[in-house]
């Protein structure tokens, strides 16, 4: 945790510097007769961000903030495993949307999560992972919000489905 | 004038219909909900028009799949132009545009948008601009206004929707032509501008009639000058042309298709919007919102884009953009 | 007295069978749309606009107003049960609603939200009926300097909101404000802070991307991590008796917050540039300040749910005021309603109140009726929402992830935003691990887009002279109060840290 605290602060400091640098492409000063320029607001607020990371670093050095005193690891074995399985699952879910459509991706994600992470019965898993996309599809029809349909091979399925709801 | 236009419309609509019949074997019908992108956020003038068009199509059941409005107003319309250029389904993606269709690619060349790659669909109308002041200012004529502005010596406050936007182009032209300076306060929409004119936070605006109409009818706003070719029915004020400057400026209310749209799909949408154009509802809407009809066929639209791009290039250059 | 008879006619109109049916359907539909994370009243109203062609305009707007009301009630539901603010107006509701739900008191939180919403809506309706034309001129007297002063006041009421770590709280606020500036500079009309030159940033970072990322993804992963996947909330009880006991508890502990929210929300809501979100945030801050036990706020105090919920309903009615009296939309939702009125052939503007008496008073009458039905329908559905919470966590968690993604997409319709939402979610998880408070960043991204333009508009008006904020009769006092509120905790902090 102690190492993690200063690394996090350093990353945020880099972010602040990057935002300051980006802001300089517009006027960051006070224009006479007009007030602040376009870069004024983000530049000086990023500057305060940078100062805050400095303050965090001081607290870290003096050991006054709880994370800088703790010897715990940032994430233990359970934490990393959880992050890979849950976080990775969500990332894969989003990555699949443009390929097999929103509904296909929801279905696979729910099967993965309920069956392999949740260890629920196949009945519960399939009921939810097939039922939910159907509910959402009618929601789409009623609300007139088009969800991503994926790559072209899903087209015949969606053409049929749209025939049903419209 | 109107009659000839209407005849032209009927003729072109008939021609399109005929072409549709000939090509009936592979005529296009939308198979998916149509992505109806709007180049502005919810609630503005462009959004109201888009939702009106959608409502007419819906009410008359004119499409086999619904038009799904999709507001993409970010970055002064850049968001919408990018969305259209990168769509993977150009046959089901159309856009309701305003003049940022011309100005945004000019002002942000790094977007790499070439509007001539877009597919012309329909020019529904053009929206004129009018100069408004608050009634408590006591100003009733343009000459009086000019005097006041010049006397204020740069302290006269006008509001608008931002540098490079339609109204700022008109204001820049005026200040150049008549040699005055104003303070220009940018707002995020025509409604906010009208509100601050009503509250006299600002002293004058250049706004579409539709956005100022309620206050005009209540007598709070006084129109001084129109930037149209002819006097606007219902708002009887002189035009810029009558004041000796050959200048008119309109906001286009047009529908365009995504780049790469197939010819069949383009023909379908051209016919659809020609049909909407001819409905009683749209004709009535144009009249009540003081829009001017300016129907064009697809080739004329392309030519119009070209002249508009050239015009805007010159106008923006004159503004120092 | 004339007003009362007009209002009476309006209510009779809205109690006609067709209108009453539309109100009940509208409120129910709105409730569920509002409960979806991502979708709020603006989506509900915009999407259902064309459906209203089937009925006369008077009934159509009643239907849309009922959806609007229902959605405002519904926003609290995802804030409490899922911990995700479904709309910016419901951010403050998560501060105490979520802790209550985790303590097994989701029922109490939902009842508090429903009752406070009802009171807020009713107070707003009465103020609206009595003072509409007068208040319209008040709304117009708020120019950019006044709105900026108000935003500063909203921040000031929130100074104490972050965690105990001062630099981390400041960092969080500034990060939110800078993120709010990404996209487009309204004054110069130039793109600004296009991070890594990715076009997706041109439209800026929507509040929802950050809020759903932080609460729907980050906070959920954090919950799984910190509980080792075995969540041990006490199961909430569902029974009529329990709801009745909850109502009584809300009456005892939430009345102050409700009262503050009802009035403050309404007055902030009628200002077209401000609206319901700052109203609900300020009400939360003020309720915390005047409470005898401010320490309990943020840990599950019913007053912390009542204040923002009363305020956001009150403000939504307030936002109708500039729309009906001036034809100026006070919020995106009223902007769409206004568009609807144009479609129906009405001219919004100052003449509407005079020329379309029946339409206007029918609508106002329907506010009262919608409000009663929204309360009843909401209370009736509370057991359903609590039942959802009793699902095993390994079912609830993936459902929340799916709702976050599908709701986020429905509102934003861009895969880029969904990826950004994931990045914020993972970032939030790690920042959470190191005790960075993130609520201030979410608030800042809501208030930033109002605060920065009004600051710069004001300074353009005054040619760069900052005294404009202090010399105007309305903004001056607001500025002074805001600055005092900001300086108070600072002085306290400096005194504490003085070497003895």
UniProtKB/TrEMBL annotation, chain A:
InterPro entries with a match to the protein in the record: DUF1468 (IPR009936)
UniProt keyword annotations, A-Z: Membrane, Transmembrane, Transmembrane helix
Extent of the signal sequence: none
Pfam families: TctB
Transmembrane segments annotated in the record for this chain: 41-61, 82-114, 120-139
Domain DUF1468: residue ranges: 7-148
Superkingdom of the organism of origin: Bacteria
Name of the featured protein: Tripartite tricarboxylate transporter TctB family protein
Species the sequence originates in: Thermohalobaculum xanthum
Automatic annotation (TrEMBL), chain B:
InterPro entries: BUG, Bug_dom1, TAT_signal
The keyword Signal is annotated on this UniProt entry: yes
Signal peptide: 1-27
Keywords: Signal
One Pfam family it belongs to: TctC
Keyword Cell membrane: no
Stored PANTHER family: BLR4371 PROTEIN, TRICARBOXYLATE-BINDING PROTEIN
Family named by the database record: Belongs to the UPF0065 (bug) family.
Name of the protein in question: Tripartite tricarboxylate transporter substrate binding protein
Organism: Thermohalobaculum xanthum
Automatic annotation (TrEMBL), chain C:
DUF112 domain sequence ranges: 20-443
Organism of derivation: Thermohalobaculum xanthum
Residue stretches spanning the membrane: 20-39, 46-69, 75-95, 107-128, 134-159, 166-184, 204-225, 324-347, 359-386, 393-412, 418-434, 474-494
Keyword Transit peptide listed: no
Annotated InterPro entries: DUF112_TM
PANTHER family: BLR4373 PROTEIN, TRICARBOXYLIC TRANSPORT PROTEIN
Domain of life, per lineage: Bacteria
Keywords of this entry: Membrane, Transmembrane, Transmembrane helix
Protein name as annotated: Tripartite tricarboxylate transporter permease
């Amino acid at each position: 945790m102690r190492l993690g605290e200063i690394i996090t602060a350093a990353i945020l400091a880099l972010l602040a510097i990057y935002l300051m640098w980006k802001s300089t492409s517009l006027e960051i000063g006070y224009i006479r007769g007009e007030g602040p320029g376009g870069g004024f607001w983000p530049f000086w607020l990023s500057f305060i961000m940078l100062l805050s990371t400095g303050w965090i670093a001081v607290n870290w050095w003096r050991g006054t903030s709880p994370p800088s005193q703790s010897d715990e690891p940032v994430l233990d074995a359970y934490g990393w495993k959880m992050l890979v399985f849950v976080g990775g699952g969500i990332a894969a879910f989003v990555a699949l949307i443009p390929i097999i459509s929103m509904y296909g991706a929801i279905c696979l994600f729910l099967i993965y999560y309920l069956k392999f992470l949740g260890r629920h019965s196949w009945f519960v898993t399939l009921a939810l992972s097939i039922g939910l996309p159907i509910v959402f599809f009618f929601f789409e029809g009623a609300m007139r919000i088009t969800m991503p349909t994926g790559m072209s091979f899903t087209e015949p399925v969606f053409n049929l489905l749209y025939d049903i709801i419209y | 004038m109107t009659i000839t236009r209407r005849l032209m419309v009927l003729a072109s609509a008939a021609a399109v219909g005929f072409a549709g019949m000939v090509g009936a074997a592979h005529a296009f019908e939308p198979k998916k909900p149509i992505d109806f992108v709007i180049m502005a956020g919810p609630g503005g003038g462009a959004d109201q028009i888009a939702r009106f068009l959608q409502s007419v199509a819906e009410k008359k059941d004119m499409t086999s799949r619904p038009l799904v409005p999709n507001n993409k107003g970010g970055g002064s319309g850049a968001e919408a132009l990018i969305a259209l250029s990168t769509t993977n389904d150009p046959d089901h993606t159309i856009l309701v545009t305003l003049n940022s269709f011309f100005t945004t690619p000019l002002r942000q060349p790094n977007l790499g948008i070439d509007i001539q790659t877009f597919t012309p669909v329909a020019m529904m109308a053009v929206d004129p601009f009018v100069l408004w002041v608050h009634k408590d200012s006591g100003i009733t004529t343009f000459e009086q206004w000019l005097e006041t502005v010049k006397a204020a010596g740069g302290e006269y406050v006008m509001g608008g929707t931002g540098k490079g936007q339609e109204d700022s182009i008109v204001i820049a032209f005026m200040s150049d032509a008549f040699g005055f300076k104003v303070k220009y306060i940018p707002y995020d929409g025509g409604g906010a501008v009208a509100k601050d004119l009503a509250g006299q936070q600002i002293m004058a605006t250049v706004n579409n009639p539709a956005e100022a109409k309620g206050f005009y009818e209540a007598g709070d706003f006084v129109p001084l000058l129109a930037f149209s070719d002819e006097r606007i029915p219902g708002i009887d004020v002189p035009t810029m042309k009558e004041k000796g400057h050959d200048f008119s400026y309109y906001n286009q209310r047009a529908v365009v298709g995504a780049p790469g749209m197939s010819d069949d799909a383009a023909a379908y949408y051209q016919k659809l919007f020609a049909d909407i154009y001819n409905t009683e509802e749209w004709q009535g809407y144009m009249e009540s919102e003081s829009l001017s009809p300016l129907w064009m066929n697809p080739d004329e639209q392309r030519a119009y884009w070209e002249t508009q791009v050239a015009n805007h290039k010159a106008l923006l250059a004159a503004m120092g953009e | 007295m004339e007003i009362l008879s007009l209002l009476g006619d309006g209510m009779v109109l809205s109690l006609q069978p067709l209108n009453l049916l539309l109100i009940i359907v509208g409120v129910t539909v709105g409730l569920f749309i509002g409960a979806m994370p991502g979708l709020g009243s603006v989506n509900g109203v915009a999407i259902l606009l064309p459906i209203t062609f089937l009925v006369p305009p008077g009934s159509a707007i009643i239907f849309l107003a009922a959806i609007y009301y229902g959605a405002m009630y519904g926003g609290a539901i995802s804030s409490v049960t899922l911990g995700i603010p479904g709309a910016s107006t419901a951010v403050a509701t998560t501060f105490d609603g979520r802790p209550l739900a985790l303590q097994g008191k989701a029922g109490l939180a939902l009842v508090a939200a429903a009752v406070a919403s009802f009171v807020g809506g009713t107070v707003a309706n009465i103020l609206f009926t009595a003072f509409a034309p007068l208040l319209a001129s008040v709304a117009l007297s708020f120019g950019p300097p006044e709105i900026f002063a108000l935003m500063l006041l909203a921040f000031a009421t929130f100074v104490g909101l972050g965690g105990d770590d001062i630099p981390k709280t400041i960092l969080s606020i500034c990060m939110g404000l800078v993120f709010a500036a990404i996209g487009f500079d309204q004054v110069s009309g130039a793109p600004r802070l296009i991070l890594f030159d990715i076009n997706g940033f041109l439209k800026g970072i929507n509040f929802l991307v950050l809020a759903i990322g932080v609460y729907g993804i980050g906070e959920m992963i954090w919950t799984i991590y910190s509980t080792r996947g075995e969540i041990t909330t006490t199961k909430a009880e569902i029974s009529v008796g329990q709801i009745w006991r909850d109502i009584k508890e809300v009456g005892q502990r939430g009345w102050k917050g409700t009262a503050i929210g009802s009035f403050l929300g309404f007055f902030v809501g009628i200002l077209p540039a401000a609206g319901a979100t700052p109203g609900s945030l300020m009400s939360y801050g003020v309720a915390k300040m005047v409470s005898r036990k401010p320490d309990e706020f943020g840990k599950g105090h019913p007053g912390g749910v009542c204040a923002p919920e009363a305020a956001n309903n009150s403000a939504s009615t307030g936002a109708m005021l500039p729309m009906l009296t001036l034809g100026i939309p006070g919020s995106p939702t009223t902007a769409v309603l206004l568009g609807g009125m144009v479609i129906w052939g009405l001219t919004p503007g100052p003449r509407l109140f005079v020329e379309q008496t029946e339409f206007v008073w029918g609508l106002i009458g329907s506010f009262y009726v919608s409000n009663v039905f929204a309360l009843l329908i909401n209370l009736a559905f509370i057991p359903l929402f609590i039942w959802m919470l009793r699902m095993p966590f390994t079912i609830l968690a993936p459902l929340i992830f799916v709702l976050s993604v599908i709701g986020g997409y429905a509102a934003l319709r861009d895969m880029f935003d969904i990826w950004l939402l994931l990045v914020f979610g993972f970032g939030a998880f790690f920042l959470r691990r190191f005790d960075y408070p993130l609520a201030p960043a979410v608030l800042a991204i809501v208030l930033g887009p109002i605060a920065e333009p009004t600051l710069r508009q004001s300074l353009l008006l005054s040619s760069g002279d900052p005294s404009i904020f202090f010399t105007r009769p309305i903004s001056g006092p607001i500025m002074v109060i805001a600055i005092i509120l900001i300086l108070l905790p600072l002085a306290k902090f400096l005194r504490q840290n003085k070497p003895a």
